Each structure stands twice: as structure tokens, then as C-alpha cells.
């Protein structure tokens, strides 16, 4: 770590390289952690339910980002209507 600081002090043009490269690595590790913690197809706890992806209801969105949020809202409303009927 001290070697990197010395290198950046001697050549400041390398600072963006280490800044963006380091932040890219951190985002990649954070995304992998997110997928491990929240992914319906990832099994870390072997003593829990055998197939955790079966716990997702048809109206639940399991995606990290969904550009069409209205679709999932309409689907949830439809599921609630079907439960009442």
C-alpha cells in the first residue's frame, strides 16, 4: 500500500487509474455480495429450504433493476385481487 502511495506521489497522473480501478473492484465485490445475499438461486445455508427459488411468488420481482416497474405493480395488484376473490 505504501508503494502505491509513493508511486502516485511521484506521478500524479496515475491517481485516476488507481481511483477508478479500485472503485471498479469494490463495486464488483459488492455486487457479488449482493447476489450471494439476495439471489434466489444461490444456496449458502445447506440446512434451510432445499429450493429457495420456490419461495418467490409470481408477483415478486427478484431482479436487481427492473426498468418496467409498472408491470410488477400491476401484477401485484392482480394477485391481491385474485386472493380476495
Describe this structure in words.
This protein has two domains: 1-38, no CATH class; 46-85. The relative contact order is 0.07. The protein starts with a helix and ends with a helix. It is mainly alpha-helical. The protein contains three helices and no strands.
Features:
transmembrane; elongated; 85 residues; 2 domains; 3 helices; B12D; transmembrane helix; mainly alpha; membrane
Q: What portion of residues is helical?
A: 55-70%
Structural class: mainly alpha
Number of strands: 0
Q: What is the domain tally?
A: 2
First-residue to last-residue Cα separation: 64 Å
| Uncertain spans | none
Proportion of residues in extended strands: under 5%
Major beta-sheet overview: none
Approximate shape = elongated
How big is the Rg? 22 Å
Mean pLDDT: 83
Helix count from the secondary structure assignment:
3
Q: How is the quaternary structure best described?
A: single chain
Helix and strand pattern: HHH
Pfam families: B12D
Keywords: Membrane, Transmembrane, Transmembrane helix
Transmembrane segments: 12-33
Amino acid at each position: 500500500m505504501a508503494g502505491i502511495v509513493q508511486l502516485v506521489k511521484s506521478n500524479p497522473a496515475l491517481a485516476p487509474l488507481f481511483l477508478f480501478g479500485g472503485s471498479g473492484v469494490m463495486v464488483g465485490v459488492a455486487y457479488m455480495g449482493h447476489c450471494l445475499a439476495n439471489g434466489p438461486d444461490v444456496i449458502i445455508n445447506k440446512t434451510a429450504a432445499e429450493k429457495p427459488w420456490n419461495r418467490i411468488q409470481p408477483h415478486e420481482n427478484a431482479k436487481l433493476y427492473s426498468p418496467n416497474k409498472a408491470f410488477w405493480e400491476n401484477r401485484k395488484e392482480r394477485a391481491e385481487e385474485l386472493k380476495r376473490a
